[in-house]
## 1
Amino acid sequence: MAEQAQATDTGPRPIVPWLKLAPKPHLEGIKCACGAMYLDPKRVACSKCGEADKFKPVVLSDKGKVYVFSVVHQSYPGIKTPYVTAIVDLPEGISVRANLTDVDPAQAQKEPHKIFDLPVELVTGVAAKDREGHDVIAFSYRPTKN
């Protein structure tokens, strides 16, 4: 815990442990010796082979495709609605839940076929301030500009 608190004293901090901010923002997974991949860096055993402590960190792609999405119309007080949330499939075989930015919720509802399999890229932004006044960085995905 002291290690985590010390890290927040130096500046911006990621909102989840698998979001790394340097050298450029990216997600980091872990890969078991058997080849299974996971997003949770605190996993102690592989659900595929049962081995423990055979994981190595792996940098995940900043590109993916929308597998499924939902338009959220009701949320926690203070959260602007509607917004689009999705499951994004990454090329490494990991799926990530994240919000989609630069996607109009009304248009997504009218033309859902344009959102499924949509190529997206990872983006980061300030989500809040922590108790010490440092930026808390969150990630989302936006349509690629190709």
## 2
Amino acid sequence: MNNVITQEDIEVGLRELGLQRGDAVEVHSSLSSFGWVEGGATTVIEALMSVVGKEGALVMSAYPVSPPVPLTEEEEARGITWKVRILDPDSDEKTGLGAVADTFRKRPDVICSTSFFRGCAWGHDAHLHCQNYKHLLDIDGWALLLGVDIGRCSSMHLAESVPIPKEITRYFNVPDDILRDYPQDRWSIGYGSTPGNPWLKVWEEALRRGLVRIRTIGQSECKLFKAKTIVAIYEEMRRTDPFGMFGLKAP
């Protein structure tokens, strides 16, 4: 088959992107974005492990949620923006985190936390990395997006400890009737919107500052950046211009 992506192709691309032995890296990925990968998700994982080595670390989110479930016209009219099913933590069902994360989570050499927002990690300090992304930021680790955008970057949520005005959060308050119809033990949903996308604005600012390394591996656009730096931009925006970040006028 032509244009088959091999483990060597991925390793070369990751090293040219700037990933090195000993690096700790948060990984979010779309296997299909590469094109045809010989050996599938396992090949991507083995390539990552080979590049960073056991003195480095790989960290992935592994939340027990389904892929996005299509919305009906009625749901869109009610203000629902996305929905996923909550899965049993021990389910082998495909999750919305992708084939690479699903395969990584099941490896015997990978440590996973037991919380709903579970992380899974391999390598140095895996027992710390799997708890949350704070340890990754503390050691100034990397974030790597393989064919996905900033919206998948879980470490960004750490910036949300910086509060924003209630005039903004009210846009996303889920009405009681929707909470009733979508029990939180069965569904996770998005509700409401604002004119601006704050994570996209963070990404645009990171690009403007030259903080992101970008390279194509196979057909996948891959992005590497320091997680702590991007989180800091988000924190800064939340502190200094929260209304502008959401495309709103301050009262």
## 3
Amino acid sequence: MPEFNVRETFEVIGKAKTREEKRDLLKQRENFATKAILQLNYHPSVKWFLPPGSPPYTPSTEGDITSNSLHFEIKKLDYYTDPSPHDLPMLRRESMFVGLLERLDPEDAKLLIAVKDKKLSYKGLTYKLVKDTWPDLLPEEEVKQTVKEEVPVEQ
């Protein structure tokens, strides 16, 4: 599979006019990193072992960025999610995550922070679209029902 840039894929999806076009673009640009990012963001059972928000880190500059793309780093994200096969002290885990963010393109680092907080936000990119495109990637969405409590009316 070609390694389409994950962020660019999401931006292209945002420009697509129809739901069908969005699905087709996701399928055309399918790769492990894109599917993993979407699963980490939308799957309800994915929990992160990191505090919410952006940690203090120094975004890389153009000269610093090596071939370490999100495609390469994606395989290391199991250090930060539950269940993790890696038993690490929280301080070590957080410092590793900061190092990861500093190796990535600054925009990819922002994307990863949004995914960690389950707040990925691109126009037209939704749980339903991902579920329709790859049915096995996410579970059926639970329909949240609100129960109206009947309050006795005084007469």
